Amino acid sequence: MDTTITTGWWTCTGCGVEAELPASATSGCEVPCPDCAEPMAESWRWEALAA
After folding, report:
1. What gap in Å lies between CA 36 and CA 48, rounded to an integer?
2. What region does 21 belong to: left with phi over 0, alpha with psi -120 to 50, or beta?
């Protein structure tokens, strides 16, 4: 069983707000900023092993 979780760090292109989001929920999607509705850009990803 695969127990890894991939997470992405996103930054808003409009107001600069940052968010940590699961990659499985955001893959291939345009993510709107919760504060100003501008599109967010993924800065980087990492994988964490579940214990």
Report:
1. 30
2. beta
